[in-house]
Design brief:
30% of the residues lie in helices and 23% in strands. It has 8 helices and 10 strands. The protein is elongated and about 55 Å long. It binds a DNA duplex (16 and 16 nucleotides) through loops.
Amino acid sequence: MPELPEVETIANGVHERVRGQTIQSVWTSNKPQTFKSSPAQIAGTLTHSRIDRVHRVGKTIVVDLSHNNRAAQFLIHLGMTGRLLVSTPDTPIPPHTHAILTLSSGRELRFVDARRFGRLSVVASANAETKYAGPGQEPLTIPIEDFIALFRKRKTPIKAALLNQSLLHGVGNIYADEALFHAGIRPLRHAGRLTRAELTRLRTALQKVLTEAIQLGGSSVSDYVDADGVAGFFQLHHHVYSRTGQPCRLCQTPIKRIIVGGRSTHFCPHCQH
DNA sequence: CTGACATCCTGACGGC
DNA sequence: TGCCGTCAGGATGTCA
């Protein structure tokens, strides 16, 4: 399940492989839910455009395009199971392929998404970022005072607040749990009641887990985009996520699992307060 | 406006 | 062994 580090790694890997290439043709599946812009709109915008850059905003992969001095952007949200593959045309097309972009290099950029929570769309304007970035802030660069202000007066559990993309971009279930563990904060604590010291620890912990995950992912980009998806990211040494009942790596207390904001949530009852 | 909750979708997994 | 039910989750929409 791609969160900020995975999306960043994928965007960087795809960038290196497709930058400067021209999209020669576009095929799309006919599954409506996948396409936030119509398939015709996407094909129209992409065909004959040159790929200038692939990067990440929040959990969205942004492909900067240009064609006859006009700029546009192709937006890819991977959802849970979305994958971007750079393949040669003779590579068998995997099940659940929803888009294939034929590139001038002869290779193909394929979007594959079994569970279909992913979304594809195009935007056409220079200041498009405001349209898709949303109000949330980037967790890796947010200043401490802004971070503290985000949670002021919030009655929701801090875990739910971390997952709220209109507050912070890119934090998903895994890194929310891991960051709370490293900050020593229980996921059900009311966001608005956390102290400055706790929020300071939380920001540091969040940046630490995200940065480390990006570094781990960086070594397996090639596996991810060329072959079968998930290799690499799950080598992550989680402390709490998906470790229900297993001993805490610090104190041996069994990790507990509860539901917060409709999401499974893992924490150490001894290390987190 | 804020927060809680259902919804989408299919593969993986556990139980019988 | 094999079938069936349950669960996972990001974003969105609905409702209180």
